[in-house]
Amino acid sequence: MIPKYQDIQKAHERIKTFIHQTPVLSSKSINKILNVDIVFKCENFQKVGAFKFRGATNAVRLLTKEESEKGVTTHSSGNHAAALSLAAKQLNIPAYIVMPRNAPEIKKKAVEGYGAKITFCEPTLQAREETLYAVQKETGATFIHPYDNFNVICGQGTAAKEFLEEIPDLDIIIAPIGGGGLMSGTAISAKAINSEIKVYGAEPLNANDAFLSFTKGVLIPAGPPKTIADGLLTSLSPLTFQLIRENADRILTAKEETIVSAMRMIWERMKIIVEPSSAVPLAVIMENRNLFEGKKIGILISGGNVDLNHLPF
Amino acid sequence: MIPKYQDIQKAHERIKTFIHQTPVLSSKSINKILNVDIVFKCENFQKVGAFKFRGATNAVRLLTKEESEKGVTTHSSGNHAAALSLAAKQLNIPAYIVMPRNAPEIKKKAVEGYGAKITFCEPTLQAREETLYAVQKETGATFIHPYDNFNVICGQGTAAKEFLEEIPDLDIIIAPIGGGGLMSGTAISAKAINSEIKVYGAEPLNANDAFLSFTKGVLIPAGPPKTIADGLLTSLSPLTFQLIRENADRILTAKEETIVSAMRMIWERMKIIVEPSSAVPLAVIMENRNLFEGKKIGILISGGNVDLNHLPF
N or C: which end of chain A has fewer CB within 10 A? Predict the structure, then answer.
């Protein structure tokens, strides 16, 4: 089933009262430096500090009574795990999270804090999938994939919907691409609301599977990517690849050092904490000035969960 | 001349269109951890990243035509220098800033970026005052003191005025104390708007001149203080001491390690960048839980200018 804008509208009605309508901020000094007019949709202020709470909430609220009793599960060491845990907790639904043993302490604590049950596994994709399968078998919990999931994508699309309802006159909207959930939802919402808006994806050059897939027209999974943008390590799924091919105009990449500069620029000029993944859209603008000068650009800030003990500056 | 609330009201009318009405934010998780209901007035989002822009703007806009032509001057290596430079620039008034040679590069650049003329001096108070005197003599510029100045204090008081107009039902309001400009303005506004509100000052234990002065009833200047809260190194002036004695209820102190924990809590939980000085009010709550539990508390976040290369975590 392919998500349509009507599905995103329904998702928004469903989750509206449980999520934050996050603020839209801008910075005169960043605009002056880059000769642009950028507005930032700040999902770093969303619950659990990331847009992922939208998709998780939508998915959890659509479970049947029987599914709810058995709970939800996923494997993740990142924002989706925290988002799913909190979304489940709000409905008193059990959440079972499979996490690699070497996940950062802070992420383990966040998930535990939301009352989820963690099962640790070896830090390989195979171990994660096998452990998840075992947990599912034992508990009967429903697997909520972080992005290859209709309801999750519809939830993520509500961020761009809110954004464009508040700021309708964008020339370009840019979202970061990891697994493609945010990008898919953003592209569907943006094109439905105003087909003139250019929809760009932003990806680290060191994890450019979406760029390659989009350019070549076939799904090319990421090698083991090495990027500071730890939210963008995953590859597109068949579903998100299809949605992005159909709705996005272009995918642009940025170098690691530009991502760090962009992150620092946001921290210093805007006084907000964003994770490296969220800086990739601004980095893409910094590396492609001619595409963006004089334009009104909307950037989706995906989240603000960073380890303050390991900053890149 | 002693500032009254009417003077702050007039200041607010005067500067309103030139400043940001900064947002008020809160954090469910911080409230839960400390069993309080805290709202934060976020002057880190003010122009130049600090409340100082309010006082500087008010002072500069009250210059006579003749004074304006000759310009303004101050000695400062911090937020007041940047604030005065931008406030002057907006009116095409020359600004002459005396700065110690060893001021951080980033602060020099900020002031230069606002078009001010910097005169460097040795990093001693004596050298700063002598150099300022020489600059004044040469240029005829008006000295705008960072806090021992009627118009500056009235400008700073507009932050608490905005805050209480948006959130009228506070039990307690807390501001950090350095030279006492923000604290004086806050206390005057708060007591005038609602005499029931408790007004507390927050100071690093390692720079507790205001605490000692307030407690003993005589102005005791700071020794050379050593604190991470670099905005709070200065001592009260006779004027701010008088205003604080008359209007504040209490001054509380916090240890360095608590200030760092409070700063980190704000960064991690609220995803906003605040400077160490701004974390002192929360640190004071953390060290005096019994005074604050169950209360609705307003905290003035003074600014967000930190050197990302020298973070305490």
Answer: N
Smallest Cβ–Cβ distance between A267 and the set B45, B268, B308 belongs to B308
Tell which of B21, B33, B271 to mutate to test the A interface (max A CBs under 10 Å).
B271
Q: In angstroms, what separates the C-alpha of B42 from chain A's closest C-alpha?
A: 10
A45, A264, A309: residue with CB nearest B271 = A45
State the best of A24, A265, A271 to mutate against chain B, taking most chain B CBs within 10 Å: A271
Check CB contact of B137 with chain A, cutoff 8 Å: no
Residue-wise pLDDT tens digits, B80-119:
999 999 999 999 999 999 998 888 787 888 899 999 999 9
Q: What's the gap in Å between the CA of A272 and the closest CA on chain B?
A: 4
Q: Tell me if A304 and B23 make a contact (CB, 8 A cut-off).
A: no
Q: A204 - beta bridge partners?
A: A254
Q: Does B310 touch chain A (CB under 8 A)?
A: no
A134 touching B, CB under 8 A? no
pLDDT per position as a tens digit, A268-290: 999 999 999 999 999 999 999 99
Q: Which of B44, B268, B311 sits opposite A271 (nearest CB)?
A: B44
Dihedral-angle region of residue A166 (phi above 0 means left; psi in -120 to 50 means alpha; beta otherwise): alpha
B312 token code pair = 């305490």
Q: pLDDT truncated to tens, each residue of chain A (313 aa)?
A: 899 999 999 999 999 999 999 999 999 999 999 999 999 999 999 999 999 999 999 999 999 999 999 999 999 878 999 999 999 999 999 999 999 888 878 788 889 999 999 999 998 888 999 999 999 999 999 999 999 999 999 999 999 999 999 999 999 999 999 999 999 999 999 999 999 999 999 999 999 999 999 999 999 988 788 999 988 888 999 999 999 999 999 999 999 999 999 999 999 999 999 999 999 999 999 999 999 999 999 999 999 999 898 899 9
Which domains are present in chain B? 5-50+154-301 (3.40.50.1100), 53-143 (3.40.50.1100)
- pTM comes to 0.95
ipTM, two decimals, is 0.93
Interface size A-B, in CB pairs within 8 Å, comes to 34
Nearest to B165 by CA among B132, B143, B136, B194: B194
Are the CB atoms for B208 and B253 separated by under 8 Å?
yes
Confirm or reject contact between B268 and chain A (CB < 8 A): yes
Q: Where are the alpha helices (DSSP H) in B167-273?
A: 181-193, 209-216, 238-247, 256-270
Contact A311 B311 (CB under 8 A): yes
A225, A206 contact by CB (below 8 A): yes
